[in-house]
């Protein structure tokens, strides 16, 4: 009896486990089938329409109107006049053989020789010349008193400058007598007494000149 109860209890447990497994399988099948159906439905809805995003472009404003410009009328074109040229015949050209001219050289006469140049006018140039005797320019009466007392003598050489009027303008001692008073007496008396014919240039005009000479001072006897 106890063995029979144990076997009945074991069969009952097995039956409960089998039933539980069957329920699990059925629930799993239901859950899995529903999920697959839901996923398939959503995928079909997503694949039905592929909507592209529409790009909206902003309208471009039209360009501003050009400024008012004066309306230039079209130029007036005048058609050229109709000129009718009557037909002309070609001119007749006649050629004649003309011999070239013969060149005969002509002798060229030599130009006459140029006349000789006129001779130059005679020169009127001349140097200054003393008027009268140069020995009278200094006399024994002009002997310096001191030099006469001391019996000093000598020769003094001089040069005078002469103006265009023939008068002495300057006197220079170019050779001393050795005594200053004798040299001074020479220039003083020559400047006061000497007169000259003035020097002339080539055209005969009086010009300045110079003259040289000497005075010999000797003690009068």
From TrEMBL:
Composition bias of kind Pro residues appears in: 59-84, 98-122
Where is the protein situated, by its record's location annotation?
Answer: Cell inner membrane
Q: Which residues form the TonB C-terminal domain?
A: 128-221
Please give the superkingdom of this protein's source. Answer: Bacteria
Q: Where is this region: Disordered?
A: 57-145
Name the residue ranges with Low complexity bias: 85-97
Regarding the membrane, this protein is recorded as: Single-pass membrane protein
Specify where it is mainly localized: membrane
Query: What InterPro entries does the record point to?
Result: TonB-dependent_transducer, TonB/TolA_C, TonB_C
The reply to whether ATP-binding figures as a keyword in the UniProt entry is no
**TM spans (from-to):** 13-36
Q: Which UniProt keywords apply?
A: Cell inner membrane, Cell membrane, Membrane, Protein transport, Transmembrane, Transmembrane helix, Transport
Keyword Lipid metabolism (UniProt):
no
**Which NCBIfam families does the UniProt record give?**
tonB_Cterm
Q: Which family does it belong to?
A: Belongs to the TonB family.
The protein, known as: TonB C-terminal domain-containing protein
Q: What is the lineage of its organism?
A: Bacteria, Pseudomonadati, Pseudomonadota, Alphaproteobacteria, Sphingomonadales
